[in-house]
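lol forgot to send this yesterday, sorry. struct tokens for the thing we talked abt
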């Protein structure tokens, strides 16, 4: 096999060729009044110089004029969990006010298309007018005419749900606001109708970006039906809604700079990764044959590889590049090439989806019951007693203040392995293995 530089990372996604499987997620800038399509194109092109295989435009609605009397409103709120470090951002913003004007968004596509290599496509991320399929299709056609290569339906933006009246709008389809986002995308009938109409009216491949608020197993039905009406891909996931935390030392006020209140706002970053994996893994299992883009909490290149092993064809960075800058893209592509070389994978196809066969319903898993037991390495045990002072009836401390396991009582739950701060606990083959029936009989005291 050759050198890392020779590795071919190109991929065909929704029928469109991309030079690399890592791209730029849709990211609405927080200063749309001062940013033009041309200016945003410059920023996106920096990501492309770093090797990105595709770019998204930020969501745009059908509105022609941004309301000039309403200033853009957006703020990043740092999330930090003591003991766990940086855990993401809350994004407090008003979807209507941070939206780029349609004419500037179309200029953005035009500027990008003039400068991008032919194998770096533009995905237009659009948020149409509420529950009006015709309006969505009209908007998609405008981006098609401007030169976009792929249409992504943003029925998942969480910002509209953080606005006043969201709960009331959600309860009635008739009241879905013009800026609907996830208020639309958690309604299968409406999302299906919008997708079908856009697919019928444009010649471009169309996909849907899901909201994580559509949890498992409902999301599987979504994917199936969207595929049925012609969606070529599913993107998982947009940000979930959360409530920004109160300042516990200041009467519950907002701890964030310049805010007089906390918001119901999207939370982005590492903690959403498992929601992304849930979607990618389960769609691969239950709805094979539809392309998948992974986004959400991918803040290390190993996350990209994990998402691909679960079936993602392409992966995109949002928080990752906000934290690390554009260099994160080139670093990740370099690592990916090295990884493939070391593992002996000659193409992305060789490892895409490999992990899906190992996702199983609980009853189909061999848990090694009766065969496996916990064991504590006395050389590593520091006698902290955390495992013994816990939800475990098999571990006690011996006279040397070392944890010891009663093999007969151990249910191999591996709590000790998960929590031991000294990595002294492991699961091993039991010295006197029991058959599963015997194990249950003992366990149940029969
Ligand atoms: C500042 C900002 C703007 C965003 N704008 C959009 C957007 O215009 N359209 C969209 O579909 N998602 C948008 N998102 C969501 C991201 O594309 C992504 O789905 C989400 O941030 C989760 O990825 P992460 O955990 O890597 O940040 C935005 C996210 C951020 C942080």
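and heres what i got for the seq, position by position
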């Amino acid at each position: 096999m050759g050198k890392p530089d020779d590795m071919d990372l190109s991929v065909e996604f929704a029928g469109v060729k991309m030079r690399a499987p890592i791209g730029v997620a849709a990211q609405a800038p927080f200063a749309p009044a001062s940013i033009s399509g041309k200016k945003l194109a410059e920023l996106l092109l920096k990501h492309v110089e770093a090797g990105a295989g595709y770019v998204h435009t930020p969501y745009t609605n059908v509105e022609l004029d941004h309301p000039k009397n309403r200033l853009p409103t957006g703020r990043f709120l740092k999330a930090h969990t003591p003991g766990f470090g940086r855990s993401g951002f809350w994004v407090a913003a008003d979807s209507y006010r941070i939206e780029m004007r349609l004419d500037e968004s179309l200029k953005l596509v035009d500027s990008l298309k003039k400068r991008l290599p032919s194998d770096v496509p533009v995905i237009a991320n659009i948020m149409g007018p509420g529950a009006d399929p015709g309006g969505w299709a009209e908007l998609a056609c405008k981006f098609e005419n401007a030169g976009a290569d792929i249409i992504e339906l943003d029925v998942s933006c969480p910002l509209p749900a953080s606005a006043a009246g969201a709960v009331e709008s959600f309860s009635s389809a008739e009241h879905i606001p013009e800026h609907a986002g996830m208020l639309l995308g958690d309604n299968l009938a409406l999302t299906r109708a919008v997708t079908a109409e856009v697919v019928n009216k444009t010649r471009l491949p169309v996909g849907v970006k899901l909201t994580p608020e559509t949890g498992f197993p409902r999301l599987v039905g979504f994917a199936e039906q969207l595929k049925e009406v012609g969606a070529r891909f599913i993107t998982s996931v947009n940000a979930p809604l959360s409530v920004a935390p109160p300042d516990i030392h200041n009467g519950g006020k907002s701890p964030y700079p310049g805010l007089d209140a906390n918001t119901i706002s999207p939370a982005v970053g590492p903690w959403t990764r498992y929601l992304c994996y849930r979607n990618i893994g389960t769609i691969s299992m239950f709805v094979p044959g539809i392309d998948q883009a992974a986004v959400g909490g991918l803040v290390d290149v190993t996350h990209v590889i994990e998402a691909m092993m679960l079936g993602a064809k392409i992966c995109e960075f949002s928080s990752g590049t906000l934290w690390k800058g554009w260099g994160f893209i080139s670093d990740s592509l370099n690592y990916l090439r090295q990884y493939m070389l070391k593992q002996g994978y000659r193409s992305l196809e060789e490892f895409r989806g490999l992990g899906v066969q190992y996702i199983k319903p609980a009853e189909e898993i061999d848990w090694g019951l009766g065969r496996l037991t916990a064991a504590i390495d006395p050389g590593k045990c520091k006698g902290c007693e955390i495992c013994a002072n816990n939800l475990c009836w098999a571990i006690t401390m011996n006279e040397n203040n070392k944890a010891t396991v009663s093999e007969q009582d151990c249910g191999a739950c591996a709590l000790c392995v998960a929590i031991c701060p000294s990595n002294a606990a492991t699961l091993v083959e039991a010295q006197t293995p029991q058959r599963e029936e015997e194990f249950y009989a003992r366990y149940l005291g029969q």
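The domain at 366-443 is CATH 3.30.70.20 (Alpha-Beta Plaits). anyway ping me if u want another try
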